[in-house]
Design goal:
Oligomer: single chain
Order of helices and strands: EEEHEEEEEEE
Number of strands: 10
CATH topology: Metal Binding Protein, Guanine Nucleotide Exchange Factor, Chain A
Structural class: mainly beta
Largest sheet: 5 strands, antiparallel
Helix content: under 10%
């Protein structure tokens, strides 16, 4: 089984074979304003399709990640790590999922605004 999501206009689509162990809500200003629900993915198995190849790569703050949004509809579908450490990280925005998120997967609160720690 695979799990899919996309931006509103489907210009950016994603697919992953498994769900994360937990989802993350972050308190940083970008994540709060975009209402993202992040889930870590394995870069070797996730598939991202850019229909037109036109995206917005927003790099802010400490410049360790790029938020990827659709140039047409503006939805943020994922972020990519800009750090040169292995394994490279990416998180999908599961608020853009094409399915209802399972209630059995916990949503953890991450303090990206101040302490850079999970608050649970």
């Amino acid at each position: 089984m695979s799990y899919r999501g996309s931006c509103h206009c489907r210009n950016i689509r994603w697919e992953t074979p498994r769900l994360p162990d937990w989802f993350t809500r972050c308190t940083c200003s970008y994540c709060r304003k975009s209402a993202a629900i992040w889930g870590r993915t394995d870069l070797g198995t996730v598939r991202i399709v850019y229909e037109t190849g036109r995206v917005i790569r927003y790099i802010h703050g400490d410049k360790t990640q790029a938020f990827i949004s659709c140039e047409k509809c503006g939805c943020t579908t994922h972020w990519e790590s800009l750090e040169h450490i292995e394994p490279r990280q990416m998180k999908l925005n599961f608020a853009t999922a094409d399915f209802k998120l399972p209630a059995s997967i916990p949503v953890r609160l991450f303090d990206g605004a101040e302490s850079w720690r999970y608050l649970d």
